[in-house]
Amino acid sequence: MHIGTIELETGAGLAPMAGVTDAAMRLLCHEQGAAWAVSEMLSAKGWIYSQGKNRNAVELLARLPGEGVAGLQLFGREPEYVGRAARQLEDAGFSFIDLNFGCPAPKITGNGEGSALMREPERLAEVVAAVAAATRLPVTVKIRSGWDEDSVNAPEVALLCQQAGAQAVAVHARTRMQQYSGRADWSIIRRVKQAVTIPVLGNGDVRSGADALRMIAETGCDGVIVGRAAQGNPWIFGEIRAALRGESWTPPTAQQRVDMALKHFELESRLHGEKRGLLEMRKHIAWYVAGLPGAAKFRERINTMSGAEEVCAALREYALTAE
Question: Fewer beta carbons under 10 A from the terminal one: N or C of the chain?
Fold first, then answer.
């Protein structure tokens, strides 16, 4: 599959997730078989106003050696600001610009951004056109099925995005009002695929290699992206790649899960410093040990710790009892 001039390897992509898909997460997922990844979302207007001096924004732009193809996700509703940000950031080290029209968070939609733009298709298309004109990088978009069940308009929005210059569209097959609840309606992805000629990426309820194969078979989508199912489970990308190739796959052991958590902690500390790295890792550790014996008590124990050495020692000790 190609996104503009970018040739992607066989496999699934890591979906953008705020507070999750930083450089550490992206690197680990790439190492486990992710064909591409997308960053946490960055406010285009915030970037312009801060003149690149906002610490959180600068950290969001960080890359790590060994990362594969990654897109930078921007959000905003003013075409001029999003276009300017894309132009300024096209040399930040990312392979493409992804536009967020899917975030359901009230603090985003309350400003008319994210999935709120599904209610303003013309404005959404203007944002896409502005970015496509501003940068030499390929432009992709991530949308939802629609705002609610009475306004499912993803096929129409996707076509407008294509006409405005988008070179791929990812569809989270839930409405904004669903947030992340209920079942994803994959028939919407099929309808989007029928409406456009650019690559269509399916998203929603892909939790295994078998799910990925079924989504592709049922919708005809060109690829899949994985979000929440990759939390604490970067191996899902190896599983999906194996399924696409017709190969066998072995799930990770408890020791491998703990080893990955330790590596993840090291990378987060490198990115953010030990103190911030520990705060970032608490949620990741909870995801890595989910389902293992004594996981709930171990999570409570980790949350009381304040030092990197203490946490790492506890993880190694836990691995001995979790098999």
Answer: C
